[in-house]
């Protein structure tokens, strides 16, 4: 899917495919340096983190395993509530592992702070977070995010894994939808 497929549903591209690629490579270099001599358990949060997982994992040189969780933070539309439920748990035991959570976006931060706490309580040796996007202005809780791709304004965005009503995840860039899409 590309901008041309969206017609006037796309209001603006805020982060291009090239910018994402470059930034993920920089993040991977920092992660490689920080994790030297250790092995990573890279945990992706379904479904938004699929693209970040695929591209970040391929840019990393540190030995790693990939595992997935699906969690739902109760809430409808475009707001998260902070009440989290596990829809699919990890297949791996995290005891003694160096867990790096890969996420698409941190909005309120409620989902990730819950997840990081959950994995720490299972006995992980360390739990860090790598997120492509962060909306700093709307954070409800302090989340310690070690690796952040881009800070963006508090707007609803789609693409590169992020959806609106399950659509637009396969856009190679991050963009903002036109107002009329939400009112259809
Ligand atoms: P949080 O708990 O408010 O930080 O929300 C985290 C989750 O909400 C993310 O993993 C996304 O799935 C979703 N989300 C938050 N902001 C956006 C957005 O702008 N576009 C699409 N999904 C979003
Ligand atoms: Mg998500």
3D architecture notes:
With 184 residues, this protein is of the alpha/beta class. The protein has one domain: Rossmann fold. It contains 5 helices and 9 strands. The strands form 2 sheets. A 6-stranded mixed beta sheet has the order 4-3-2-5-6-7. The chain starts with a helix and ends with a helix. Bound molecules: inosinic acid and magnesium ion.
Question: Would you spell out the secondary-structure blueprint of this structure?
Answer:
Layout: H1 3-6, E1 10-15, H2 17-34, E2 40-46, H3 50-59, E3 64-73, E4 84-88, E5 98-106, H4 110-121, E6 126-134, E7 147-151, E8 157-158, E9 174-177, H5 179-182
Parallel strand pairs: 2-3, 2-5, 5-6, 6-7
Antiparallel strand pairs: 1-9, 3-4, 8-9
Helix pairs in contact: 2-3
The structure holds inosinic acid (IMP) and magnesium ion (MG).
Inosinic acid binds at residues 48, 73, 80, 103-112, 156-158, 162.
